[in-house]
């Protein structure tokens, strides 16, 4: 191994591993996501995420896009077309817009990845009309992207903290907002699944470091 390593870049395989790691996390945590959604929503967030990420896994078994951007666009499109709930189009937009931002380069730098996710998160905010503090997935995604410049682990911690910080908030967007003040005291399901996706990203990055 050279003493002076070149800057680490991420190829299509990295993004495939991220998404399949995320799909495994969704399989493990689906019941918890549904339990959270049963408190302030309609008890389908776990099944929505399962349906979406099983479809993502399936399409990635059939197709192998050569570029990171194409992997994300393919996965995003799959989420949009398979998930009926609000989270499908929102996560689909996150991945699709991040993928488009990456273009067709075969390798992306950490800075390019951060910028692409920032673009995707901004697209989620625009589509859903929500902002940080509204008790949505953005409460995990926005701090995660901000921390990503520091490290993947910092991003995962920021996402976890952001999800936990939704507990005392009153929901202002999505189904939970219909509950008004009764949404206070519960963790937002979408912020929780967003933290899982960012944890999967950090796990994928950490695993790559060990095996390469
Ligand atoms: P649905 O609300 O249609 O049943 P899900 O249960 O799958 O869909 O997803 C609910 C999650 O989606 C919420 O916990 C919240 O994090 C997220 N969400 C809902 N509406 C919005 C929005 N307008 N902007 C951002 N996130 C949203
Ligand atoms: Mg729901």
Overview of the structural elements:
This protein is an all-alpha fold and 212 residues long. The protein has a single domain (10-205), classed as DhaL domain (Serine Threonine Protein Phosphatase 5, Tetratricopeptide repeat). It contains 8 helices and no strands. α6 runs antiparallel to α7 (152-164). The longest helix has 29 residues, at 12-40. It is globular. It starts with 11 loop residues before the first helix and ends with a helix. 52% of the residues are buried. Bound molecules: adenosine-5'-diphosphate and magnesium ion (MG).
Write the layout of secondary structure elements.
Blueprint: H1 12-40, H2 45-62, H3 68-82, H4 87-102, H5 110-128, H6 138-148, H7 152-164, H8 189-211
Bound molecules: adenosine-5'-diphosphate and magnesium ion (MG).
Summarize the structure.
The chain is mostly helical and 212 residues long. It contains eight helices and no strands.
Bound ligands, named by name, code or SMILES: adenosine-5'-diphosphate, magnesium ion
CATH structural architecture: Alpha Horseshoe
The count of helical stretches stands at: 8
The biggest beta sheet reads: none
Helix and strand run: HHHHHHHH
Key terms for this structure?
binds adenosine-5'-diphosphate; Serine Threonine Protein Phosphatase 5, Tetratricopeptide repeat; 0% strand; 8 helices; binds magnesium ion; single chain; mainly alpha; 212 residues
